[in-house]
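[INFO] parsing input record for Putative oxidoreductase
[DEBUG] input buffer:
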Amino acid sequence: MTAIPEYSSSARAGLVGLYRRVIKLPERIPFSLIQFAARIAISHVFWQSAQTKLASWPVTLQLFANEYNLPFIDPSIAAPLATTAEITGSVLLFLGLFSRLAALMLLGVVSVIQIFVFPENWAEHLLWASLLLLVLTRGAGVFSLDYVAERTFSASGK
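[DEBUG] output buffer:
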C-alpha cells in the first residue's frame, strides 16, 4: 500500500489564500489607466483611418461612390463627413476633451460601417464599440482634459 501524503489544512488554506491574492492583483490597476489606454487605442484606429482617406482624396471619393454605397447620403457629402468625424473624434478622445460626445459620435461611425459598409467585420467593430462604450459610460478618466475641466469648474463654483 502506498502512502498518500496529506496536506495540512493550514497549508491548503495558505495555497488558496496565495491563489486568491494573485488572482486579485489586476484589480490594483487604476481604472483611469484602463480608460486612458482605451482612449488612446481607439483614437489611433480612427486617426489612421482618416489619414488614409486624406492621403488619396480622389480614391476616397471613388470608394464612397462605388464600394461603400451608403443609402440616403451623397458620396460627396459622406466622404468629408466621415473624415471630419474620424479626425475630430480621434483628437478629442486622445486629449480626453468632450470624450463622451466624441465616443458617441464615433459609435455612430462604427454603426454606419457595420450596417452598410463591412457587416462581415462585426468582431472588429464590436471591439471598437466596446472601447467607445467604456469611454461613453465611464468617462475619460483622470488623465484627461475632461477631468481637469471638471476639477477647475467645480472648484470655481464653490
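[INFO] DSSP finds seven helices and no strands in the chain.
[INFO] shutting down worker
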